[in-house]
Every structure is written in structure tokens, then in C-alpha cells.
């Protein structure tokens, strides 16, 4: 079996699922996260690249508004999304004849298991934070007062590696 072709088919299937989005946001986001992962880790594993591309697969099917307001509702929504995305990726990867161990690894990265100790999970988190800064920083800064914005930035940077924080600093410096 041509593993490169299998990878390409899996990416195409993820992209096709995201292309169903009513807003088109998921596909653009997935490509940006994948690009950041490749920049952060030019030697990224196939599992990390699949997780990056599919970490928000069909996200619109579970809207935030379907959960209670407040922090606990938000955290439950995020936790449930990790499971939904992991399950959907598992279905796609299974259809492409990926081995169960590979599927489980991709799902663990998407679920952010062992974030503090797994370098690939940290790379995905860095990429997610960098895309957030790249695509939402300016809009958010326009809506929030300085104190709240400083808090958002501090919380984002706290989740990142040293290299991620360095790159985030460059993005923030050039924002506006």
C-alpha cells in the first residue's frame, strides 16, 4: 500500500468533511494549523499532521450555544468536542486502513492527552494558539479593554512552549 497516497486520501477526506461547513471557517483553520505545525516541526509525524488537519473536523455540528453559558458549560463543550473530533477522525482513518495504534495516537493528540509531557501534543497546542493570535487577536483587542486583553494573552502564552511564545510575540508585535 502506498502510504503517501493513503495520507493524501485521509487529508482529502478531512478537508471534504470541513468543506460542508456553512461558514467555511473549519477548512481555513485546519490548513493554518497544519501550516504552523509544519513550521514548528518540519519533521512532524504523520499522526501529528493528521491530528492538526482534523482537530476541529465538522466543529459546527456541535455549536457552543447548545451548552450552558458560563465557564463550566464552555469547558464541557470543549471536552465533548475533543471526543467528537477524535471519533470522526477515527472513522476517516479507519476507512483509509490506518492501523489501530496510529488511529489511537491521532486521537490522543486531538484529545490533548499528556499536554504537559508530549511534545507532539504541545506542538498542536502551540499551532492552535498561533492561529488564534494570527486570526482573532486584532478583532478581540478591538472588543476588550486592555486589562481583559492582557489576561487573554497571558492565558494563551501560558499554554505555549518557549518557541511558541517567541513566535506569538512576533505575531503580537506585528498585530494592529
What's the SSE blueprint?
Layout: H1 3-19, H2 25-40, H3 46-54, H4 71-95, H5 100-110, H6 119-143, H7 146-158, H8 162-174
Descriptors:
single chain; 176 residues; mainly alpha
Structure report:
With 176 residues, the chain is an all-alpha fold. The protein is 73% helix and 0% strand. It is built from 8 helices and no strands. The relative contact order is 0.12. The mean pLDDT is 92.
- Gyration radius over CA: 16 Å
- How many helices in DSSP terms? 8
Largest sheet features: none
Class inferred from helices and paired strands: mainly alpha
Mean pLDDT: 92
> Could you list the spans in which at least 5 consecutive residues all have pLDDT below 50?
none
Strand residues, percent: under 5%
Helical content (DSSP H or I, runs of 4+)? over 70%
Shape category: globular
Q: What is the rounded distance between the termini?
A: 48 Å
Task: Give helix and strand order, one letter per element, not per position.
Answer: HHHHHHHH
Could you tell me the number of beta strands? 0
